[in-house]
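A reminder before we start the practical. When you read a complex entry, don't treat the lines as separate problems. The point of joint prediction is that each chain is placed relative to the others, so the output describes one connected object in space. Small molecules and nucleic acid strands, if listed, are placed in the same frame. In the example below there are two entries. Take a minute to note the order of the lines before looking further.
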Amino acid sequence: MKFCHRLTFTLLVLVNVPFLSYAQDLAAPLAQIIKTTAQDCNATNGMNLPIITWGGDVATIYGNGSQANTSKGSIFDKQGLGFKLTRQDDFAKQLSEYLSCHSPYLRGTVGMISMAAELLNKDPRTVPKIIYQLTWSAGGDAMIVKEGIRSPKDLKGKTVAVQAYGPHVDYLTKILADAGLSPKDVKIRWTKDITGSDASPLSAFKSLDVQAAMVIMPDALAATSGGTVGTGAEDSVKGASILLSTKSANKIIADVYAVRSDYFNKEKGKVEALTRALLQSEEQLKELFKNKESRRSEYQQMLAGSAELLLDSAQATKDVEGMYADAEFAGFNGNVNFFANASFPRTLDKVSGEAQSAFLSLGLLSRDFDLSAAGWNYEKLQDGLSNTSKAEVQRFDPSEVARVVSKKQAQGTLDQGGLFSFEIFFKPNQNDFSAELYKDAFDKAIKLASTYGGAIITVEGHSDPLGYLKGKKQNNPELVLKQIRQSAKNLSLSRANSVRDSLLAYAQTKGINLDPSQLAVIGYGIDKSKTGMCGSDPCAPKTEQEWLDNMRVEFRIVQVEAESSVFKPL
Amino acid sequence: MYLSHFNGEVMNKSKVILSIVILLVTFLIIANRTQIDLSGSRVQASGQNIPTAWQQEPQEGVELEENKTAKNYYIVFDGSGSMGDAGCSGNLSKAEAAKGALESFSSLLPGDAHIGLLTFDARGIRERLPLGLHSKEEFMDKVRALIPGGETPLNTAISRAVESLEFQGQKQLGYGEYTLLVVTDGEASTNEDPRSIVEYILESTPIKLQTIGFCIGQSHSLNQPGRTSYQTAQSADQLVKELENVLAEADSFDQSTFSRVP
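Here is the predicted structure of the whole assembly.
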């Protein structure tokens, strides 16, 4: 992000829940806090459409004609829509306006809407229908940590600051879950604001008793002296670093539009028209960004319009460009996957289900609720779109990935970037790594690969050192021992490749196209024995179980956000 | 000026400076004797560079190999003047016997192996084939073109071969197999004793060092039983076959093997 983060985002107060004074260790359910009662919608309510300060909303504004009121000839106008866009970053206020039907629409993340599900389900009129996914957060949000926390499982017993009812709550709980922790394994310090005040997670992070915080990226960069390690100067915190951001965890925070059930049932045509318009806006905005040089005037007008509506200054165009880059637009295929593809690992049901399970544990909900989708006919919604092909894009440069992984391996730092890891085991001389044998592990790998699509997954093969150690004990010639060692290294690489190939094939059978460039193979040979190293040789296994434990392939999810060379240009 | 205490005494500035100078001079003397190139590589007493230690981490600009477990064979063919004579080579000259041995050796190499060839002969020292995929015919054409004559820069030749194999090792991220075959009668020119580079290969790289030799005794660094492979020209094919059946892993666990290991 190249824009002036601190100045811009101190203009924002994304959520202002009055009851939460500074920071506290408990948050009450929204159903107990928001007192607004549900009211009927009238004919004019459907004209108000909330937007929030996020890159995904740039497309909405563009579709409206780059201004607050729908302009003639704009994408929205051509769909017969007439909106007044209103920025409402205060989610509590949005909820009140939704319940009173000042607007029948709700703009938030799946996590935030899930947190409000109990409130919204109090009255059948206000049960939300999720109609459209704008984006996944892909770099705009981060977890920062203090020294000593190297992976998410190190958070156990620590205190983590997060804004109450905001977009980071389920981000935090998802990371914990993938590390094998529950929300109860950490102490949560709830804050009122997301940024720009003494009641924000960044501010709480400066306390000695807070070891981690969920923040927006500008605050993450400030705390860590520009994304490295905080020096303690200016706004940074000494020793602080970014553990991971949504650049790695790029399928957790889903930004969506929801609509009241009563309005949906009465004005389904208008809601569908809005969805169609949003899809077209996203596609056409992408084209505009691609051709910004040849369409300079239109591009500048688009930026200025979004800057005015989102940042209160038409000059803040660089900031708009930065915000756009932090979001990964779902587009047509993303919406189909999110709402209508049961085999997609990150559907609305899955994301909401995970979030609500965590919220139950935190006492933010008393039971779980189905967040239902609109059930669109996506074939019909393709009309007016020119690019609905499902061609998969490779996110990473395989050569650069191999190079970076190799470098980290040589430096012994691969473990340090590791977020999550797990192992599968094999028998002596086993060459079959089919899904029949490893279904559970492969399912886990697919889920992690899908959720952390911006991280590398290393598939690390190991060999049994017993043959080498026996040979050494029997005084085999140096030449033979050298051959055994190198052969073991090659064999472990072949094993890792077999596992990788099996995993990709298995994912295909489930209708999931994993990105092959995300998977990097390593063969450690006998150099990383579970029995430890005795000098330059592995220590001998003392039991048969120790011997068997060495025969393994490890999956490791590795954060590589600092290694810009591995990412292919978009 | 007060600087520090040492055994209760105050050291004055001049004594401190003198100590530093003495340490620096001592370092420079030691460095010169061991010929440490302060830029990082190790330089042999003869003044020739030995490549830096085998690294897995590929350097900038190195294009990675698709087949990371490829087998690599780099042949150094001694075509010096002495190889034009007969000696431990039956009725043929050593060079002609060597050519036959290489034909036998190369016929057994896997079809997808990388082959490289460096010769030194009457035409000088030169890489005739860069390490890569070549047909056996192409390889043998270069071998047959050798004209015995000239000096025996054995150390230089082997060093260049090692550089080539190490570069390939970077492209393969350290996986695969690496064989350096030296065909020679071992009579190196002055200052071309390959002892240091041989030690480096054996101690610091996964390169298998093989020799097709003519009357090379076990005092020669290229003929160290258990550490290098040595065959005569008549048995050159054995070099390819040896180590074929070496297994990477044990197929069963036998606790008694380690009952006395601390």
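Discuss with your neighbour: The first strand of chain B starts at residue 5 and ends at 6. What might explain this?
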